[in-house]
Specification:
heterodimer, A: 385 residues, alpha/beta, Isopropylmalate Dehydrogenase, 2 domains, 10-stranded mixed β-sheet, 12 helices, 21% strand, B: 372 residues, tricarboxylic acid cycle (chain B)
Chain lengths: 385, 372
Amino acid sequence: MAGNAWRSTILKLLERYGAWITGQRKPEEVSRVMGAVKSQTQPRTFSRGMQTVTIIPGDGIGPEISSAVIKIFEAAKVPIQWEERNVTAIKGPGGKWMIPPEAKESMDKSKIGLKGPLKTPIAAGHPSMNLLLRKTFDLYANVRPCVSIEGYKTPYTDVDLVTIRENTEGEYSGIEHVIVDGVVQSIKLITEDASRRIAEYAFEYARNNQRASVTAVHKANIMRMSDGLFLRKCREVAENFKDVKFTEMYLDTVCLNMVQDPTKFDVLVMPNLYGDILSDLCAGLIGGLGVTPSGNIGANGVAIFESVHGTAPDIAGKDMANPTALLLSAVMMLRHMGLHGHAKKIETACFDTIRDKKVLTKDLGGNSKCSEFTAEICRRVQDME
Amino acid sequence: PQGLSGARLQPLCVRSLSLTSSRNALESPPARADSTFKVTMVPGDGVGPELMTAVKEVFKAGDVPVEFEEFHLSEVQNMASEEKLNEVLGSMKNNRVAIKGKIHTPMEYKGELASYEMRLRRKLDLFANVVHVNSLPGYSTRHNNLDLVIIREQTEGEYSSLEHESVAGVVECLKIITREKSRRIAKFAFDYATKKGRSKVTAVHKANIMKLGDGLFLQSCAEVAELYPKIKYENIIIDNCCMQLVQNPYQFDVLVMPNLYGNIIDNLAAGLVGGAGVVPGESYSAEYAVFETGARHPFAQAVGRNIANPTAMLLSAANMLLVLSPQNQCVSVCVSLCVCVSQVRTRDLGGYSTTGDFVRAVVANLRHRPVY
């Protein structure tokens, strides 16, 4: 279908959801839909009814915040049907650790998932659940948009960047050996395919979300071969995306400049370890993991959105948790699915509540309960109808 | 006057000889009546030479009894070779103290994966890099009154330069962690903390993912920590550490970590107090001390524009002076005076002064210092 035909269909739909008033230009929303449309499988983007989403509540405060999100979605009348699944590591045939088959089936069918925090047991014999999920669905890109939240003041204002991290290889390949007693070797793996794939995703994301530039973060002056390969692939992919500016910067220079002036950065793409560190650094700039959304994009159109904070076992069950991170990830999910109207409503309600400062959970500086915070957002959402 | 100029001429001759033939430099230098200290100087690339000029001018104005032996070792300017490296090493063996700029590593490699900077570090076994992150008095940033020390292991870890392409399109890079070196850097960190009266040492790691590698590092730190009951020991994961540094850096005191994390945290912390132009650092081995800036960047885009901030290099040179001759505190006092005065601010701190302006201000301060 020609581009224009797509565009008018989408505009009509946006009008239906009240996200587009004819004559007013809202390029981001259009392009986000375009982004979703361009992905390999087109998961019922135009919502002809209820869409299934697999929800994995998780451990610790996971169940509380998941139910908070479900409540808010109900109040906003989002056409989503939740399928709750639990993931615990089970040993499959052949001795390999895997996630329960029901969870896998559900995800494969729905293609979209929302996940709460999962406990990583130490010395349990099996790898972390996050790692298992990543391997099962080949979640190769971790996307974390970091945008300053009005109403939650940090020393850094006007942050608006996105970190895209390669999530399958690099330093976290898990290949370690003890060579002799007292000498350990860890292997960092960089492959052409993975580097190319993440670079392509980063540029497509930039194009679809109207971002001006993509910066590759690396340490090719030290790890000349491995990061050199990553950088070469990024450069090659950049050739095909001439509308997006491509720059490259050393990791230490990025860290140096990020804490002095984070407004200089736009989309950052990098291998695993640097991505882990930088995405947490950027989360710290906007207020911490309790308010940062995150999405994982996988190879077969699968996308799992998650909250990246821990399970907080010390406040589990006490109705003190802050559901903002999971909520914002769910909003990211709605945008990915094309439900921009609902996404905007819920996001606005959430930000308004935080800006008002009347009902805030403890970590945001108030002393309300999680249920009160949730109720306030539900109220605002319903008032917006 | 005759004897005085005679004594001054002699060191000059020794210096020119040492530049042309390295063999002479290996002999022990003749004893001098005025007890000047000889220091090896490697200007490096980018703004390194400009910063070194600043140091030399300030030292001259302060009548500091230090004499520099310069070596221009540079990979990007094609002035690098095994002979040059050996010359520098020879000079270091004599002088034991050096001041250097950053020797830039080009991204393309011809043959060897290790850069000259890495090789210099390894040959001198400069295992500990100490960066002093102190807020400048009179210059406010988002976090004021910071006082951190970052100790980084700099000979092993991710910078092993052991890389190979096992299959076409698949590159492996080895990160090596040894118990011996981890113990050594941990001991250095605790000794440093004890000597400087610090209360807490925090080890930074990623042992939840790199269980064996960083696990070994963490274990070594814990073992050494037991020998220092007066100093509090904690550990933190690198990503959480970065987040905490931007939200609440005051919870840290001394940080110790392997190579790559050190690079990241050095630069992060430098950014917190004002950037690469204000943080001094030094590298130690059992026998040598090399003084440089904390965040090491050649800053090639500033070459020739006279905009580089020499504060970091001057503070480092002042630290070097304190090590060489503890009574000579004048240089450090003056540099900090200058910054305090806050009239002379270079581009990176939001002002318009040039490198030359700043150096002249420091020199003026030195000339007018009260003589006790």
